[in-house]
Design brief:
The protein has 340 residues and is mostly helical. The chain contains twelve helices and four strands.
């Protein structure tokens, strides 16, 4: 592991992060006004927390602006006169696969958001339609990894410091990891700033790991998204002026999943993304217990961030405490990779 690359990394990352952030800060005020004119507002589920009903009509699809910034900045990368570790930056095949995962999920999210707005309901695409696309994407990505990359079917084992071969088991493994991560991030997007700040934490932790691995291509993508997401949080913090919608949450979940599966660090993702794991598990436990007991509940409401809201905690407190917890998960994930 070459830690000597860190100074070069920051000389490259600082302007890249700044460019993404500044472009996004310019775009978002105009984008929010456009969404208001189109009346593309958030639909709120009636069974949710009562305080959330006042958020109905808040502009949504903020994730679309993040994706536009990601595309524009990525297209400009080959022309930016920057070097990293003495080498010109080049977009790799892995980067295009990474971008493809993001864009396909963004497309799914856009259709989902558009249907919700058109129907004026909180339900969009059917779950089985999303799952079908995710499974096809997972199979295609596993095929790419096995046949066209040096990593192949190797998966890094946390705390042990080495990888093991999964062989053809990589296919069902990806079919679990990719849709699982995307949907878990989607579940986390329920409070002002909650998903955004935790995604930035996850991207930052992963970027550090991938930097030391020498995967500057993946680091570049993560930093571009992080810069745009920081600008989004400027307008998404409580009380939110815009929501990311499924366009954003599915795309960003795809970004995190993509960084992991394209570098063989899926199990590290389970630790760094501990917040998303907890959110998803809370829903699975609640639904299973509800069915087994004929209507009884363990949590007041799921995903679990609503459980704390229902208990009297203000959403800004929930967001901050989940962010602190997410940071601790990220530290644990870094230790699981570096601390063996």
């Amino acid at each position: 592991m070459d830690f000597s690359v860190i100074p070069d990394y920051f000389r490259f990352v600082a302007p890249l992060l700044g460019i993404s952030f500044i472009i996004s800060m310019i775009i978002f005020p105009f984008y929010i006004k456009a969404l208001k004119k189109l009346q593309w507002g958030q639909q709120i589920r009636e069974e949710g927390p009562e305080d959330h009903l006042s958020k109905k009509g808040t502009p949504t699809m903020g994730g679309l602006a993040i994706i536009v910034v990601f595309i524009l900045t990525s297209l400009c990368l080959p022309f930016i006169p920057s070097t990293y570790n003495g080498k010109p930056l080049q977009l790799t095949p892995d980067y295009y696969v990474f971008a493809g995962i993001i864009l396909i999920n963004a497309g799914l999210g856009f259709v989902d958001d558009f249907l919700k707005i058109k129907k004026s309901k909180s339900l969009g695409l059917r779950a089985r339609d999303k799952m079908t696309v995710h499974l096809i994407m997972a199979i295609a990505t596993a095929y790419y990894m096995i046949n066209f990359t040096e990593i192949g079917s190797k998966i890094f084992i946390p705390f042990l410091g080495h990888s093991i071969e999964f062989g053809w088991w990589l296919y069902p493994f990806f079919m679990l990891v990719l849709p699982g991560c995307v949907n878990a991030v989607n579940l986390t997007d329920g409070l002002d700033g909650l998903a955004g700040i935790n995604i930035i934490i996850s991207l930052s932790a992963f970027s550090l790991i991938l930097l030391v691995m020498g995967r500057i291509d993946m680091v570049t993508g993560g930093i571009i998204i992080a810069g745009a997401l920081m600008a989004f949080l400027w307008f998404n913090c409580y009380p939110a002026k815009i929501f990311m919608g499924d366009t954003g949450s599915l795309a960003l979940g795809g970004a995190i999943a993509g960084m992991a599966i394209l570098t063989g660090t899926e199990l590290i993702l389970c630790i760094i993304g501990g917040i998303y794991v907890c959110e998803a598990l809370s829903v699975m436990i609640q639904v299973t217990y509800f069915k087994k007991t004929g209507g009884k509940r363990i949590f007041r409401m799921t995903p679990i961030h609503h459980h704390f809201e229902k208990g009297g905690m203000h959403e800004t407190q929930v967001t901050m405490r989940f962010a602190i917890t997410g940071f601790m998960f990220a530290v644990l994930g870094l230790y699981a990779y570096f601390g063996f």
